[in-house]
Amino acid sequence: MRRPLIAGNWKMNTTIAEALSLVKQMLGALMAIESVDKVICPPFVSLSEIRGLVEGTSVRLGAQNMYYKDKGAFTGEISPVMLKNLCKFVILGHSERRQYFTETDAIVNEKVKAALAVGLLPIICIGETLQENEAGKTNSILERQVKEGLKDIAANRDLLLAYEPIWAIGTGKAATGVQAGKTIGFIRSTLAGLWGNETAASVRILYGGSVTGANITEFMKEPEIDGGLVGGASLKSDEFIEIVRQTAAAKS
What we know:
252 residues, single chain
């Protein structure tokens, strides 16, 4: 059984004070839900403060990005070495990083290697644009992103993939559960071609893209989907708690 995981990606939102307040509102209720792994990914500036709040609890921390060098003249970047004692997870290859900051599959691959080298668990985001989807290129795009993103990386059942159709991120237009489940099944089969069936069957693959408390159960009922990467809804304490609760109920 793959243990379900819900991760909240706060993106470029919340001051340190707002971040601490949000965690305090959610922490007790999230701790009470024991059958789901909970990860929150605040901005870099809040990681240290929030770490003090969640230490010793079942809530884990993730970073939203990192560079692939340990140190050097890379103004404004954060290295894996800087993160390894602050959090356990790191989101890599998010579509916003690919779109606005021109990250390629090769760059994502370097970041995945660097994260794993220091013991961080990457959540590797993949997904197609609306134009690619409508042109019937979804599978070819995802296959390329998986193969290039994991190039020269040994089989690892602990890292995570997140399927985020770009046309569904922040648009309010989510894929259906059946669509997402079928696509994630294809991603898993691609992973099996790289790492074998046994490892592919153990890797958790999340769905992301306009996930809310109103639609999470639809996704979690799909056996191929192991959780969610939640954007805007993770900034609302009641809704994020509800997403985790519904995930626990659907996957029990």
